[in-house]
Amino acid sequence: MKILILGVNGFIGNSLAARILEEKDWEIYGMDIRNDKLEGCIGNKNFHFVEGDISINKEWIEYHVKKCDVVMPLVAIATPATYVREPLKVFELDFEENLAIVRLCVKYKKRLIFPSTSEVYGMCPDKEFNEDESPLVLGPIRKQRWIYSASKQLLDRVIWAYGFQRGLKFTLFRPFNWIGPKLDELTSDPEKEGSSRVVTQFISSLFLSEPIRLVDGGMQRRCFTYVDDGIECLIKIIEDRDGRLNGEIFNIGNPENEATIKDLAHKLRELFMNHPSTKHYKKHSEIIEVYSKEFYGEGYQDIDFRVPSIKKAKEMIGWEPKVDLDTALRKTLEYYLESNLK
Ligand code: UDP
Question: Is residue 133 a contact partner of residue 146, using CB atoms and an 8 Å limit?
């Protein structure tokens, strides 16, 4: 099997590629604007990497869509601070550039495995979000945070319609707050504040002994999923030989790992403080509260809870997550501690 992975250096891409090369004899063709997370892949005879931007290298992409059996376009902006600061960039990359790739899959009749997002459910009131039943509830236009959710939702609908009208073979997956090594770069640059996801934002603050900031009190809840669990599910989706998963959408998350953002802050701070390598720290981060207006700007609106139903993934894919929250946080933190102390 030949797989095209666009955005192969990203958080999901690099981890998926490394696991495939370890366990399977599949060939990977990958493109990314960077290669700093690919040290375990580059050099492997089944890994063919080209450094490049998907909005420029159109010919390379068309040639490889034609050549491969499965296409996974993983290039996207997925950090809330960017939805607020640069909504057009989110639309252009996440929607427009990816639509072009979807159309190539239609043209060459290739199987598309596409990342939707748990954000599409928005402020859905359901206790557990169901892929085929739950309503998708977004806020007003002037809250530009929703451009990501709306872009992804429309692309889900377009992909679905290509399946319905033109026979496109596709599977959509919706990650729920995946965490793990190589999630985001740690940053000490105030300009980039908020530009990573919550777990890496908190870890950055811990390293710098700066305050951990809970947006609007931190009572909002998320279900955190360890990346290895998510990748295992993706590999099973790719393996679907008889087309059973064609036309289906799957939540990939861990409903057992629910925590408030406040709990998350306390858990991470404790893990950090108790780690032998941080003994030399004289001062540890305090945990403070900030208003979302100050942290993200006027265009932000939050989601209070987000729990996946994973019944469908259990039944159709035979997958369920195994890694509990404390282990997932410890492993993620340990990766950053080890790579920062090198
Ligand atoms: N958040 C926070 N402090 C931070 C960063 C994020 O309290 O420094 C909150 C944010 O408002 C949201 C949650 O943490 O409610 C998760 O944020 P993340 O960026 O990981 O993405 P989301 O799950 O909202 O897509």
Answer: no
CA of 198 to the centre of ligand 1 (A): 5
Centre of ligand 1 from the C-alpha of residue 197, in Å: 6
Superfamily the domain 76-179+226-256+307-322 falls into = NAD(P)-binding Rossmann-like Domain (3.40.50.720)
Q: To the nearest 10°, the Cα dihedral for 208, 211, 213, 217?
A: 150
pLDDT in tens, 77-124: 999 999 999 999 999 999 999 999 999 999 999 999 999 999 999 999
Residues in the chain: 342
Cα(306)–Cα(122) distance, rounded to whole angstroms?
A: 8
| Whether the CB of 218 sits within 6 Å of ligand 1 | yes
Q: Decide whether any atom of ligand 1 lies within 6 Å of the 187 Cβ.
A: no
> 222 CB less than 6 Å from ligand 1?
yes
Residue nearest to atom 6 of ligand 1 (CA): 198
Q: Is the CB of 177 under 6 A from ligand 1?
A: yes
Sorted by sequence, the CB contacts under 8 Å of residue 191 that are 6+ apart come out as none
pLDDT tens, residue by residue, 30-42: 999 999 999 999 9
pLDDT band at 191 (very low <50, low <70, confident <90, very high): low
Contacts of 264 (CB under 8 A, 6+ apart): 198, 199, 202, 218, 222, 224, 329
Min mean pLDDT across 61-75, 139-153, 178-192, 261-275 is at: 178-192
Q: Say if ligand 1 is within 6 A of residue 197 CB.
A: yes
Q: Does the pLDDT value for residue 200 go beyond 60?
A: yes
pLDDT of residue 18: 98
Closest ligand 1 atom to 218 CA? 7
- C-alpha to C-alpha distance for 126 and 307, rounded to whole angstroms: 9
pLDDT band at 342 (very low <50, low <70, confident <90, very high): low
pTM over 0.90: yes
* 3-class secondary structure, 162: helix
